[in-house]
Amino acid sequence: MNIIVEGLDRCGKSTLIKSLQSYLYNLEKVYPTQTLYYYNFKTSKEEMLRVSHLHYAEGFKTLIKSYHEDKKHLLLDRFHLGEYVYSEKYRGYDGSYVFDFEKQYVNVFEDNTLLILLYDDAENLISRDDGLSLSVNIDDKNEEIQRFLTAFELTELKNKIKININNKTIEEVYNLVIKEVKTLKDFE
User: How far is CA 46 from the centre of its chain?
Assistant: First the structure.
């Protein structure tokens, strides 16, 4: 089983992942390296795009290999939707190429991959910011939210759930996700 948790900064991805790890004790947490260079990658736009292409091509291969060959279960803290959302505005190139990669592999994922999108109102996200978000401007944050919702609609992954965390407790979000996890064919 693969679980991909997507969403904006400060929407509860890491908190959800910690809860899921304790429930699904056999999952291995994976941080895609892409998130490590969002802020620090100092090079040309062309080189960023080249490296990002390599990163996501390998990422999709890893999801397939870990499930079909290694029989591992992966829990990802962000993956390809974030590239679509953030690349154009903050790195200067179009990230829609990630959906081309996804199309190559979507049939191989069968019923074993769940995409979770967490989101909230811009004001709430900004109020919880720890100074590490790409933007705390209300218009930029609203644009990021809209791009995540668009990316969610563009993905061809079969099993997906979007959760507006506004006015929901951590436990309520967790219970919604566990309900979806139990529908995956590999859940035991």
Answer: 23
Q: What is the pTM of this model?
A: 0.86
Residue 163 tokens, joined: 């959760």
Per-residue pLDDT tens digits for 45-91: 888 888 888 888 888 888 777 766 766 677 888 889 999 998 888 88
